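About this split. The held-out portion is used to measure sequence recovery: a designer receives only the structure tokens and must propose an amino acid at every position. Recovery is the fraction of positions where the proposal matches the reference. Here is one held-out target exactly as it appears in the evaluation file.
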């Protein structure tokens, strides 16, 4: 259990450090062109997810996301006490990731974001982004488990571009990004609503994915 909690903390730390750090670097090098900055942010995050899920998946399942942990708790694949430990580890790891990213780029270790993301379209985008991510994980592990790291990395990379919110899709990452006033930041006014809609996606996706991947449904094909 200790190894699993450590893996969740380290994985979320590196995920957030990559999101925040690559955002800072991309913004520095893009000459003020947000599109170029987003490309850099996207490539780094997607690549890091492939690495983290590949190496830490065998240790903890590589959730790095309270929405994933909560969904698997609903499915009774992880106990409630362990789920609480995972979520606490993810939150702590995410906050540490923001601090370390700031340390590397010589910024104040803790900032409060000022990027305003409080709007109904962005909340809708977060619901869709999270539902899509959870679906990729639940369906992908049923049919293509060996491809799951790549599937998640590609989905998150695409999510940066097809959602208006740039696809946070992760309560721990959302909370951690509140403490960076950089390209990746999210002002406190939107954080609670982002987290609520992310968690609201868990139940319907769990039920739908369970139905879609059920053996009875598969056996009825053809």
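Reference sequence for scoring:
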């Amino acid at each position: 259990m200790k190894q699993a909690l450590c893996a969740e903390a380290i994985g979320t730390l590196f995920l957030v450090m990559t999101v925040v750090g690559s955002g800072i670097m991309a913004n520095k090098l893009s000459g003020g062109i947000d599109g170029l900055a987003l490309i850099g942010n996207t490539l780094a995050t997607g690549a890091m997810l492939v690495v983290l899920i590949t190496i830490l998946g065998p240790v903890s399942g590589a959730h790095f996301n309270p929405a994933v942990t909560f969904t698997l708790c609903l499915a009774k694949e992880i106990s409630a006490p362990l789920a609480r430990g995972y979520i606490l580890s993810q939150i702590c790891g995410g906050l540490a990731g923001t601090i370390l990213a700031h340390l590397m780029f010589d910024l104040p270790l803790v900032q409060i974001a000022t990027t305003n993301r409080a709007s109904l379209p962005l909340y809708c985008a977060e619901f869709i982004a999270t539902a899509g991510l959870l679906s990729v994980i639940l369906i992908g592990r049923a049919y293509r488990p060996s491809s799951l790291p790549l599937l998640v990395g590609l989905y998150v990379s695409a999510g940066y571009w097809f959602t208006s919110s740039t696809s946070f899709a992760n309560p721990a990452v959302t909370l951690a990004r509140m403490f960076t006033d950089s390209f990746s930041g999210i002002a406190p006014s939107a954080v609670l609503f982002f987290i609520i809609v992310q968690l609201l996606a868990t139940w319907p996706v769990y039920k739908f994915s369970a139905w879609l991947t059920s053996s009875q449904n598969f056996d009825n094909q053809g």
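Annotator remark: The chain has one domain: 2-211.
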